[in-house]
């Protein structure tokens, strides 16, 4: 893999250290004075950009929107979920803390260039929780299923419901999980809220 790479950081030693870590994948490391203009080149380009303050976030957003074939990786001065989300939402192909290890730097770089993203689990969980809405459904539960929902709303345990329905507890959990999915609910709480909204219970 050979790509043109620019590293933007206020510390020259840091820039050169990052370039040295990626030495085997660089055609020629570059230090353009105008990143916005450099990003618009026709060939494949990667920018590793340290984001420290408002101007850095603005530059990140501009670079991610630049016409051309550019991949932007944010190097975060402050490592927290909010900053990861902000970088990804701005259009960064990857993000990592500025004090990342050589192995992690190379892994995030390779993933971004290959069209993937490596992110901490907490960041992925935060992304998964955003904007997820129930899918409306026309599937009406059976009388028996409404009874199960009513029992759950009244605090009856899944074990007791299973016993009354003639199923094992494990099978009952599976049936309830399938019911929640058919209703477009992610969990029991959402299923019960939906059932109340539709006057089933």
TrEMBL record:
<dbReference type="GO" id="GO:0006355">
    <property type="term" value="P:regulation of DNA-templated transcription"/>
</dbReference>
<keyword id="KW-0238">DNA-binding</keyword>
<dbReference type="InterPro" id="IPR011006">
    <property type="entry name" value="CheY-like_superfamily"/>
</dbReference>
<protein>
    <submittedName>
        <fullName>DNA-binding response regulator, NarL/FixJ family, contains REC and HTH domains</fullName>
    </submittedName>
</protein>
<dbReference type="InterPro" id="IPR016032">
    <property type="entry name" value="Sig_transdc_resp-reg_C-effctor"/>
</dbReference>
<dbReference type="GO" id="GO:0003677">
    <property type="term" value="F:DNA binding"/>
</dbReference>
<dbReference type="InterPro" id="IPR051015">
    <property type="entry name" value="EvgA-like"/>
</dbReference>
